[in-house]
Amino acid sequence: MTFRVAVAGASGYAGGEALRLLLGHPQVSIGAVTAFSSVGDTLGAHQPHLRPLADRVIEPTAVEVLAGHDAVVLALPHGQSHAVAAQLGPDTVVIDCGADHRLEDPAAWQQFYGGEHPGTWPYGIPELPGAREQLRGATRIAVPGCYPTGASLALAPALAAGLVRPEVVVVAASGTSGAGKAPKANLLGAEVMGSVSAYGVGGGHRHTPEMVQNLSKAAGQPVTVSFTPLLVPMPRGILSTVSAPVADADLSLGEVRAAYEKAYGDEPFVHLLPEGQWPSTASTLGANTVLLQVAVDAHAGRVIVIAALDNLTKGTAGAAVQCLNLALGLPETTGLPTVGVAP
Amino acid sequence: MTFRVAVAGASGYAGGEALRLLLGHPQVSIGAVTAFSSVGDTLGAHQPHLRPLADRVIEPTAVEVLAGHDAVVLALPHGQSHAVAAQLGPDTVVIDCGADHRLEDPAAWQQFYGGEHPGTWPYGIPELPGAREQLRGATRIAVPGCYPTGASLALAPALAAGLVRPEVVVVAASGTSGAGKAPKANLLGAEVMGSVSAYGVGGGHRHTPEMVQNLSKAAGQPVTVSFTPLLVPMPRGILSTVSAPVADADLSLGEVRAAYEKAYGDEPFVHLLPEGQWPSTASTLGANTVLLQVAVDAHAGRVIVIAALDNLTKGTAGAAVQCLNLALGLPETTGLPTVGVAP
Amino acid sequence: MTFRVAVAGASGYAGGEALRLLLGHPQVSIGAVTAFSSVGDTLGAHQPHLRPLADRVIEPTAVEVLAGHDAVVLALPHGQSHAVAAQLGPDTVVIDCGADHRLEDPAAWQQFYGGEHPGTWPYGIPELPGAREQLRGATRIAVPGCYPTGASLALAPALAAGLVRPEVVVVAASGTSGAGKAPKANLLGAEVMGSVSAYGVGGGHRHTPEMVQNLSKAAGQPVTVSFTPLLVPMPRGILSTVSAPVADADLSLGEVRAAYEKAYGDEPFVHLLPEGQWPSTASTLGANTVLLQVAVDAHAGRVIVIAALDNLTKGTAGAAVQCLNLALGLPETTGLPTVGVAP
Amino acid sequence: MTFRVAVAGASGYAGGEALRLLLGHPQVSIGAVTAFSSVGDTLGAHQPHLRPLADRVIEPTAVEVLAGHDAVVLALPHGQSHAVAAQLGPDTVVIDCGADHRLEDPAAWQQFYGGEHPGTWPYGIPELPGAREQLRGATRIAVPGCYPTGASLALAPALAAGLVRPEVVVVAASGTSGAGKAPKANLLGAEVMGSVSAYGVGGGHRHTPEMVQNLSKAAGQPVTVSFTPLLVPMPRGILSTVSAPVADADLSLGEVRAAYEKAYGDEPFVHLLPEGQWPSTASTLGANTVLLQVAVDAHAGRVIVIAALDNLTKGTAGAAVQCLNLALGLPETTGLPTVGVAP
What we know:
Four copies of one chain form a homotetramer.
Chain A: E1 3-8, H1 13-23, E2 28-35, E3 59-60, H2 63-66, E4 71-74, H3 81-86, E5 93-96, H4 106-112, H5 131-135, E6 140-142, H6 146-160, E7 167-174, H7 189-192, E8 197-198, H8 208-219, E9 224-231, E10 238-245, H9 253-264, E11 270-272, E12 290-297, E13 302-309, H10 313-328
Parallel strand pairs in A: 1-2, 1-4, 2-3, 4-5, 5-6, 7-9, 11-12
Antiparallel strand pairs in A: 7-10, 8-9, 10-13, 12-13
Helix pairs in contact in A: 1-10, 6-8
Pathway (chains A, B, C, D): Amino-acid biosynthesis; L-arginine biosynthesis; N(2)-acetyl-L-ornithine from L-glutamate: step 3/4
Subcellular location (chains A, B, C, D): Cytoplasm
Domain Semialdehyde dehydrogenase NAD-binding (chains A, B, C, D): 4-136
């Protein structure tokens, strides 16, 4: 059986990655590709790597274009998904890569995004406790933010097992595609190559409440998160360094590894590496994988978890396809690469 | 039907890329993975991006390990393929990513590689005139060098159509994976990032005679090639700028485009871009594609062709799998990506 | 004696580099720093690397601000210098980093820039034959384009000595700062990192007539130039590969080296490397140097010259300061670095 | 007055940077340049960016070569400085860029480096409380590690002022020159470009005890440090994210800024940026500066400090020259750049 899937926001990075993955999906045919300012252009002019779609003409992101598909992937700027989704029928599967429907707490929404809370959809990290069940057969799914994906998967098992105290420090280094394709001077190649910088320091980044939401659920108690995002000179990838104080000074590495093996041992996309191997983002490039490694620092009394993922794949569009599979009742791994493109 | 394929040189860049592609090949099962110095290690320790093979143990590159496969891909240092291939049965398909069997002229071999000429195998650029027929069902195939692939596909149509004089200038910018995985100080990240340099200038690069061979065949007359390779700060990709003097001062862009459309219009992997679009290597990352664009410079009296490809995919391991398909009687495109991973 | 120098266009890349160099100049005090859209901002907000000027406030680029300085460096978008310079007194030294006054041929100006030819100023590559004399004491100087600097210095000696035929092929790989600081989607870090592309292929780049002008003078006859610029993933630097057919099939490397040693042996900023060493752009980063190496390809019958420079230093702002020194009667090397920042 | 200074380890990155800075020092003449494996080569073959020294011949690192200089900068692999320094006269100023004499605690030395503790020299971060006085006129100085420089300067003021609890988390992203010039496969350009990875996670990195030593002194009590180093794709630069829990839940940003302004307001090389500006490593490239910014996260209850520096300049060789100035009784800033090379 083949499902017809439209992608809105097809000229951007998330939309391009969604199309790349859907092109490799054996049970998907790509329907409308839509955007705003590039309507009428060929897709080849904006996404030259998507050769099989090079001659496709970009249509407007409008309900009459998107209607009639089995599913629609929304890769729109934050705040635009809600209005589009509201016009699509309840049987159409809508996978939203934007932030509109991720947060449960209206106050957090108000503080970080402003305006009225557009409501909450099932949240698309199937590997978190209890999440997968809510995604199967869902017709509305909120794809998580790229940073929360890494941070949440990195520390949820330790919090769930009570191995660490709920005071989390996240420093995550991201490639610059995470900032999108809208031209800004600080994102020019000449600015970012050869340079690392921090931004949104001190709790201001919009992905912070999403981490708090996920990790508090995992911990079963309120968690604080200190989150510092770094911009590093590469196109893709996030390496998250996530740590928290040990709950017990005698915590052993073996106990920590056991908690992660229990949590992810059967997961197809999340992998605890063997001892002695450390994740690199290149190993996940273009793949829907998260690679993890854990350490216990006895001197500092902390558990440190390193998580590598591709912000556009498992961090956005890969997660979208994984959720699409769950929504459509397909095997969850259908069409999703687990092999990175390296070096 | 499934073919069992071994990869020798599995810990290097070409071998890793061959395994990446073979993992996505629907009619291949991966047999032995072999190497020299890393025997006994898991593949995961050397190729962490190949998750499904992470636990495979690397075996020695020896005839008793390689024998019994339907096909063997050799990704060995230049000069080592000949001896290994000689021990494999004549029915075993051997695809050699090394240089050993590319050159037809023993004098050129002697000049550029030294020692006795190990003989010539069918040459693996199916898109060159007459090449595809020699590759179908062959049991020994020489995969071309990465630079010759770009340069040859870039100018063969113009030479074959008599549009340019046989005096070719090639300047090709390559990512550093082309230099292999053996550690050298001049290939350290700190040396290559933020820097471009030339090497092998003035005719010394070993890929020069291969270009001469290919382009002379296409031209039907002896061709000279001035080849300058550049090392640029990226892991993968080659952008070739290939030019030659026009044969006729009135040559129009339309005539040139017509020659390329005729040559490549039906090819699944080689594409002339629409006017106004220029190839970038990122568009071919991880794909088996070559993207071309052509220009005619009336002032200088030259045809200029730009060719982008991934040196590890269409430039090496993708070509190997394409040739493997031809050797095994499979559809030529089986298992080969035409979608790049960008940005 | 100290000269007071203003910089117009202080928030851009060329202006920032001019300020960096002037900060290290022992006989310059920095006067007004001016710009358009960033008027009123501190310089620290736009050029955070210029610590000693961090608190300077950016003034408007207006004649009343620029007047009264001993010299003014114009680092403005092409086409804006002429009007500004016309308002400055004839005794004020004006160093124009823009293209407005480089070309001597009105037809070439019309073809490549359009509009009325704004006239020609002394051209600021002192190392070209006869150029230095015209720059000493001049009050209006046109700083050359970054690409023409490399290409002209690379081949002028061979053309002047009659060693090559006047049919020049230039392929030059540039860091992305050459494209300026105005935000464009194709210059985003995510687009340029990991990718090489060509642009302006086939004679369309505006620096082509400037190369033709310089090299024709050196050759004493009309020269054709086929110029292909490449965008490579680094912030700064140009590596030019410049070649031409040998005039005499017996031309030896020694003859070529002798011509370059004669041309540049006494130059403080242009260096022919010892045999066996090849230039890298990193070796010139932040320095006012051009590093050259030459080769003779007997098979292809060409002389190939590789030239490395920093597009913002010797390619723009360093040349501006070098010319400023000549204009002000100072030793030509005053305040100019010859040491690169590497790795 | 001019001092004659030798550099041992002149073919490596730290030695090269020391020579770059000493070339710009108005009161230094460069004496012997020495190394091990490259003895007899010209310096130009190993450090092509140091044009004025290109013809210098590398001598062996031996006491008879190094003796007779006013000062010697040792840029040797860890563990080799002690033996060399022991043979130099007590009046010769010895500036050691290696780790041999940094640690005061023999147990920490034994744990992280092994073997007998070679003793402690005055520690070369003049900006730390009480440090400058010990460096003036000293004849033996231990240059700090690159990571400890950033982390210590980042948090010392907050700890000294009692604003945070002594439980420090450091995540520092470094360019790959920090790993040195010895060729290793994991440092190849193809491995590091496009990738971020962590190493030495969990307390294993040798710079950890140096941070503990510095920050405990600043705090006046024992401090724990959780240190995670990241390798990022750039040649130079370190961006440190350093945080600790607030001592008082009501701590305001103003209080924190006041502590840093008090600590560094008069420092020529360490700068707290204005509110709203965040440090980038590019702003410090080639300069002896550290750029800082601070934030208070009320939700997470932490102070976060971002510090940018160039690991080879203020992180190694710039600190060496700064210490040399103090040792020789020169103004501390002599010859040291405060202007970075950007973009």
